[in-house]
């Protein structure tokens, strides 16, 4: 049990939690930075969390929901106010409606997370600032302290697992709800390098090829919100397959961390997907997280059945070996 103390100060309207772990500070930080890891301990065991968005940079946002044993959901959000990589971050934490937006009928609070070395391991100090004594008492009555104790009891198992989330595992795929899929991979390179590799046409032609034997015949990159992009591929002589192209619009952009685009395959009817990509620095490189929202579960499952994940892994491996290692 890593939790060492929980103290409440009714005069300053704060609750401070101190916990210590038998791992380096960077390992503990990475567990909070990686959505695959934080969702294993953010909610108590009977209410596990699912993060549909997790952007650990100043101005970024996280959205998550916790699912109860009867299928009931409680949603929340973080707005990142400050981030000092590897050391601290501060968020506005609140309850959310079903669409992920703030539930203004419920209280929000400010939370500071401080990561420090402690002996042979690390210490995490979390301080929550409440707006009023009534809101503090309301959240305590809702079981905030008990839920925190139960949730933090799970962190040890995550941070001492040095294999499941390390670089070298290829693309991980997780289904989120009925219409989303999350793809994650650690890429050995900096956030800036990975961002550049996604936006430089000449670099894209070197790695975004899918299976061997294909070439990119057109690369039109969207740089500003509202711009459209078009990527086209053609099989080399002797390789089976028909030329195809993907196109869409850039909806959001926060270089070098996050961008959101729509995506459609030319010549195929049907609604576009919404692709949300986030780049997060970790000790082993850059965690690329891609959350794709499909029109429905059938569309998602049929696209995944085409071998999409394998093609993504081939391209990301080529990005490491052909672009970032040179």
From TrEMBL:
InterPro entries from the xrefs?
ASHA1/2-like_C, START-like_dom_sf
| Pfam families on file | AHSA1 (PF08327)
Domain Activator of Hsp90 ATPase homologue 1/2-like C-terminal residue range list: 23-159, 190-321
Family the UniProt entry places it in = Belongs to the AHA1 family.
- What protein is this chain from? Activator of Hsp90 ATPase homologue 1/2-like C-terminal domain-containing protein
**Whose protein is this, by species?**
Nesterenkonia rhizosphaerae
């Amino acid at each position: 049990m890593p939790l060492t103390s929980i103290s409440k100060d009714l005069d300053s309207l704060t609750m401070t939690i101190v916990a210590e772990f038998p791992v380096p500070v960077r390992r503990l930080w990475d567990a909070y930075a990686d959505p695959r890891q934080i969702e294993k301990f953010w909610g108590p065991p009977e209410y596990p969390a699912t993060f549909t968005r997790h952007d650990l940079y100043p101005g970024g946002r996280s959205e998550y929901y916790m699912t109860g044993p009867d299928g009931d959901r409680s949603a929340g959000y973080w707005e990142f106010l400050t981030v000092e990589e590897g050391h601290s971050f501060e968020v506005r934490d609140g309850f959310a409606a079903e669409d992920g937006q703030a539930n203004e009928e419920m209280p929000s609070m400010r939370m500071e997370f401080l990561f420090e070395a402690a002996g042979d391991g690390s210490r995490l100090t979390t301080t929550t600032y409440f707006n009023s004594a009534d809101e503090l008492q309301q959240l305590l009555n809702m079981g905030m302290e008990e839920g925190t104790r139960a949730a933090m009891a799970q962190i040890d198992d995550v941070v001492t697992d040095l294999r499941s989330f390390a670089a070298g595992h290829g693309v991980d795929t997780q289904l989120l709800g009925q219409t989303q899929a999350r793809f994650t991979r650690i890429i050995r390179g900096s956030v800036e390098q990975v961002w550049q590799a996604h936006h430089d046409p000449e670099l894209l032609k070197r790695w975004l090829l899918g299976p061997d034997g294909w070439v990119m015949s057109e690369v039109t990159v969207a740089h500003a919100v509202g711009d459209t992009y078009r990527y086209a591929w053609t099989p080399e002589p002797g390789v089976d397959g028909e030329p195809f192209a993907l196109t869409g619009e850039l909806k959001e952009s926060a270089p070098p961390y996050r961008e959101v685009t729509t995506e459609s395959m030319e010549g195929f009817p049907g609604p576009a997907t919404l692709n949300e990509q986030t780049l997060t620095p970790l000790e082993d490189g850059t965690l690329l997280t891609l959350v794709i929202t499909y029109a429905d579960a059938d569309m998602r499952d049929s696209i995944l059945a085409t071998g999409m994940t394998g093609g993504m892994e081939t391209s990301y491996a080529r990005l490491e070996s052909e672009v970032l290692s040179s």
